[in-house]
Design brief:
The chain is α+β, with helices and mostly antiparallel strands. About 45% of the residues lie in helices and about 30% in strands. The chain has 2 helices and 6 strands, in the order E-E-E-E-E-E-H-H. A 6-stranded antiparallel barrel has the order 1-2-3-6-5-4. Strand 5 and strand 6 form a beta hairpin. The longest helix has about 60 residues. The protein is rod-shaped, with a radius of gyration of 33 Å. The termini are far apart.
Length: about 160
């Protein structure tokens, strides 16, 4: 087996291939950041430039090879495969996708910080209520005990 530059992700997804005046339904069998393995009734010829619509994303590439009903498509730009598979609505171009994630990270960190702060406030409030309940219970217990002492004293 040929050594791969990057790992391939086994998938089973539908897509629509366009190129040289034709449009065909395709099935994606595996994906990497550099290309796709596709199966379709009549693959285009090697070297042809095509685009494929998958999960709302249009990917551009060149037919690297074609044999029987299968073909390999090489992308112009590397893509974020997990975003493609999950149907993420953000950009698939790997550099732009990483930049978008980097821009979002301070906001996500702030949201996480707020979430943790609210949970900490809740835990502290529950703790204070538990301590207050214990002091109240102790006060009532001592008061009842003092009343019992007074009752015993008066009965003698």
């Amino acid at each position: 087996m040929k050594d791969r530059i990057e790992p391939r992700h086994k998938v089973l997804m539908r897509g629509r291939l366009h190129g040289s005046g034709f449009a065909r339904d395709v099935c994606l069998l595996d994906a990497s950041s550099r290309g796709l393995l596709l199966t379709l009734a009549q693959p285009p010829a090697r070297g042809e430039m095509i685009d494929i619509l998958v999960n709302g994303h249009t990917l551009f590439g060149q037919v690297e090879w074609s044999k029987g009903r299968r073909m390999g498509l090489r992308f112009r730009e590397r893509i974020d495969v997990l975003a493609l598979i999950s149907g993420d609505s953000g950009p698939l171009d790997l550099k732009r996708a990483q930049a978008v994630r980097a821009r979002r990270s301070p906001a996500m960190a702030l949201d996480l910080s707020r979430f943790v702060a609210h949970r900490m406030q809740f835990v502290v409030a529950i703790g204070l209520m538990a301590i207050g309940a214990w002091f109240l219970f102790d006060l009532v217990r001592r008061s009842v005990g003092a009343l019992d002492d007074v009752a015993r004293f008066l009965s003698h």
